[in-house]
Design brief:
globular, single chain
Length: about 160
């Protein structure tokens, strides 16, 4: 179901992307204690160390994903989200494939992420496992948290 899918760098200005990211933040705060929410707001997503992509079919927004560069070899997946209409259509896999290719092209050797440990996040964890990620210890500035699962994948 990813025919005619366009994944592009996004300027984080369109009403559609702002609404999707607001829904993402609302879900994170509804599901996790505030101190365990690591989702980034628009201001933090606009930082120079972050590349943000959105996925579209014609004029319909289907999802987004971001890559945060910690250094020349370590990067982190942020703001992975699909719209309700896009779920189970392969959009998340297409976004993740796009990010993996881009990260490898930048020379990233270790790609990490933080996601929730609750049942709400099980589909995300299953997707990452399918793509070869495995659980790891906290990375970068993260601290151990029973509400978080940390995952990594080594890129060649």
């Amino acid at each position: 179901m990813t025919e005619n899918l366009t994944i592009r760098i996004d300027d984080l200005e369109s009403p559609q992307i702002l609404a999707l990211l607001q829904a993402h933040l609302e879900d994170m705060y509804a599901t996790s204690p505030p101190e365990s929410v690591h989702a980034l707001d628009i201001t933090k997503l606009k930082q120079p160390e972050i590349i943000f992509w959105s996925a579209w079919q014609q004029q319909q927004l289907l999802g987004c994903i971001a890559l945060k560069l910690h250094d020349s070899q370590l990067a982190e997946i942020k703001s992975m989200r699909t719209t309700v209409a896009a779920r189970r259509r392969g959009i998340a896999s297409a976004l993740l494939n796009h990010l993996l290719q881009h990260a490898a092209g930048l020379g990233v050797t270790r790609l990490c992420l933080e996601t929730g440990s609750m049942a709400f996040f099980e589909p995300a964890r299953a997707l990452y496992l399918k793509f070869g990620f495995s659980e790891c210890t906290p990375f970068a500035d993260y601290q151990p948290d029973p509400n978080s699962v940390f995952m990594e994948k080594f890129l060649r």
